[in-house]
Specification:
With 475 residues, this protein is mostly helical. The protein is 82% helix and 0% strand.
Length: 475
């Protein structure tokens, strides 16, 4: 008994440890191949573990949003085909996030509203928190801070029911961002501090660079320059540790803007140049737009050569951004058409499954009715009214007609090219074949029934006569 208890405790320990590790998704790692991931998702029965498996393929929004959209759509289709709300939610919410990255706020809100419906229906807090947080970002972009706060608080409330993960830290950081945008620096500081503490406590350090960056911005707004610069230095150290030119450039730009506001032009120029240099020849080269614009403004009146140099950097970055957006828009159009085709395929798949089930139900019903009719016809003891046979025969006719309708419907659609008139004529033709056959079978069954009833009555009469012969009346 003791050994069994120890074994169970050990199993729980290692299971929880393995699950905790699976919950720590590393956004800096490339996503797994979906072809190898889907069998693992299908085999996993635990919703939370399946959530993290699917999430591991959706971690490239900040580097390749188009590929992330393709992965999101595939996971969404998988979820729809397999009635898996976890994959449906992740697909919808990540599509909503990626459309936001492209600046399409209407599409983003549309997908996130769908995600919220799936999440609420599932009653799974992990899904609810994700959906609510994505809606919070939509309303932040729209400047509706009341709704942004409400939805993000709902996300945090739902996330409090499960272990902290990488998204929990994001939800807290987002709350700080929302309050900072509202000018409520005290509240922004509180939530950014919570994000920092949660990340440290749970061993999640991916967002430390962004956390320090946000701390720096908050303290700069609170007129604490020493603290602001200290946090920005930490942000730079962390950005270098995880190899993120994006976070490094954002931090350098923040420092440059701070010094420019303090009229320390030399320092502003120094950090603006670093913000440009760190993203050169990387996927984030377009981030040089903001610091190059700052340098252009500084040099405009006192250094024509430098002003020209940074105006060229600004122009090239702008052109690159325009070209990237043009390419992305073309990719987006291709993606949307592929997504539409996949949605049609899912609808056809569901219709085919439904038709298959209906055929099975129809055959089952026809089998039951046929069995009853045969039983009534072949029973040697039961006298049956012919009206019962007629009634069951009509039901059998209707079931047979429905069976042929279900069986031949796809072929009729193809042959008639979905023409309602031609399909109606096809069904009338089927009925014209079935009704005469039904009349013949009904006539045969009625004759069979009459003969059976006559034999039963004759047998009963013979039995009665035999009983009378055996026991003559003594009166």
């Amino acid at each position: 008994m003791v050994k069994n208890i120890l074994f169970l405790l050990a199993a729980c320990f290692f299971t929880n440890k393995a699950f905790a590790q699976s919950a720590r998704i590393d956004f800096s790692q490339p996503p797994p191949n979906l072809d190898t991931l889907f069998p693992k998702i299908a085999a996993e029965k635990n919703d939370s573990a399946r959530y993290y498996l699917a999430m591991s393929a959706l971690t490239i929004s900040e580097t390749n949003p188009v590929q992330d959209m393709i992965n999101s759509e595939k996971i969404l289709v998988y979820g729809q085909k397999n009635n898996d709300p976890v994959c449906q939610l992740l697909g919808l919410a990540c599509l909503g996030y990626d459309y936001r990255e492209f600046g399409n706020h209407v599409k983003s809100l549309e997908y996130n509203i769908q995600a919220n419906k799936v999440a609420e229906k599932s009653k799974n807090n992990r899904l609810i928190s994700f959906a609510k947080a994505m809606l919070a970002l939509n309303y932040l972009d729209l400047g509706d801070y009341t709704k942004a706060v409400s939805y993000n608080k709902a996300a945090l409330e739902a996330s409090s029911s499960y272990e902290a993960d990488i998204l929990t830290v994001v939800f807290l950081l987002d709350m700080g961002t929302i309050y900072f945008a509202m000018g409520k620096t005290d509240s922004a500081l509180i939530y950014t501090q919570k994000a920092y503490e949660t990340g440290l406590k749970s061993g999640i350090n991916y967002w430390l660079a962004y956390t320090y960056l946000q701390f720096g911005g908050i303290h700069a707004a609170m007129k604490n320059p020493t603290l602001a610069l200290s946090y920005w230095k930490l942000a730079l150290d962390e950005a270098n540790r995880i190899g993120s030119p994006k976070f490094a450039s954002m931090t350098y730009s923040g420092i440059a803007d701070f010094y420019n506001g303090a009229s320390q032009k030399d320092s502003a120029i120094k950090y603006a140049k670093k913000a440009i240099t760190v993203v050169q020849h990387t996927a984030f080269s377009t981030m040089s737009i903001i610091p190059s614009k700052l340098l252009l403004d500084i040099y405009r009146d006192n250094n024509i050569d430098s002003a020209f140099k940074y105006s060229e950097i600004y122009r090239i970055a702008n052109d690159s951004l325009f070209n990237i957006k043009t390419i992305q828009q073309a990719q987006l159009m291709t993606f949307e058409e592929e997504a539409r085709q996949q949605e049609l395929a899912v609808e056809q798949y569901k219709a085919e499954v439904k038709r298959k089930h209906n055929l099975e139900y129809t055959l089952t019903a026809l089998g039951i009715i046929s069995f009853i009719i045969l039983f009534l016809l072949l029973s040697r003891r039961l006298i049956t009214n012919s009206k019962v046979i007629e009634f069951l025969g009509v039901i059998a006719l209707l079931i047979v007609f429905e069976f042929f309708n279900l069986l031949l419907h796809p072929f009729l659609e193809d042959i008639t090219n979905h023409s309602p008139l031609l399909m109606l004529l096809g069904l009338v033709f089927i009925a014209a074949l079935l009704i005469p056959l039904h009349h013949k079978l009904e006539k045969w069954a009625t004759a069979k029934l009459v003969e059976k009833n006559r034999q039963i009555r004759l047998a009963a009469a013979k039995k009665t006569i035999q009983q009378l012969d055996t026991n003559p009346d003594n009166s």
